[in-house]
Design a protein that fits this description.
six-stranded mixed β-sheet, Double Stranded RNA Binding Domain
């Protein structure tokens, strides 16, 4: 009987540990008029090696893109391939560090951002970064990321983890200071 309780306790600890919440961070432009953004599309994709080792896997790219598409729809943004208001980019590292910035957009002056920190130069492995860029100015408006979460041992778990992480990241958009949708 005691061994059964021990096994149950260990299993419960393992399940709770596996479901541990990942931290989500964001930075955004203070000049963003969030209610003006109603449509989006993907930025043209750079070389696979530039978006991070996890995103080089086509199955992972599909999971990321499907999850972002779902999140954008749930925020009332429609995909528009011709004249989008926002452009979306992502990076996903597994073991190597990733350095956002290869898509051809820039941060505005540092003082224009919530945390006034400018662009984070590198992210550690296991990080997923999602950027929203103004389609007209090519200026980064919003960046959300979560670290240390995309290291699942198999593709099914990776897909589930990616979906959950994207959902948490995109729950932060639009920023609370923006106009309510």
């Amino acid at each position: 009987m005691k061994s059964w309780r021990l096994v149950t306790l260990l299993l419960a600890v393992a399940i709770v540990g596996g479901c541990a919440s990942s931290a989500v961070f964001m930075d955004y432009s203070l000049s963003g008029l969030w209610s003006n953004y109603r449509s989006w599309n993907w930025l043209p994709e750079p070389r696979a090696e530039d978006i991070g080792p996890l995103a080089q896997n086509p199955a992972n790219r599909t999971s990321i893109e499907d999850a972002v598409d779902w999140a954008m729809k749930n925020r009332g943004l429609m995909r528009n391939e011709q004249t989008p208001d926002l452009l979306v980019a992502y990076y996903a590292g597994k073991t190597d560090s990733i350095q956002p910035g290869v898509w051809g957009y820039t941060y505005a002056p540092q003082a224009n951002y919530k945390d006034q920190q400018g662009t984070p130069e590198t992210f550690k492995g296991g990080t997923l970064v999602i950027d929203l860029v103004d389609a007209k100015t090519k200026e980064l408006l919003w960046r959300g990321w979560s670290t240390g979460v995309v290291n699942a041992p198999n593709q099914d778990k990776t897909d589930n983890t990616i979906r959950e992480v994207v959902k948490k990241i995109m729950a932060e958009y639009p920023p609370a200071t923006g106009a309510p949708r």
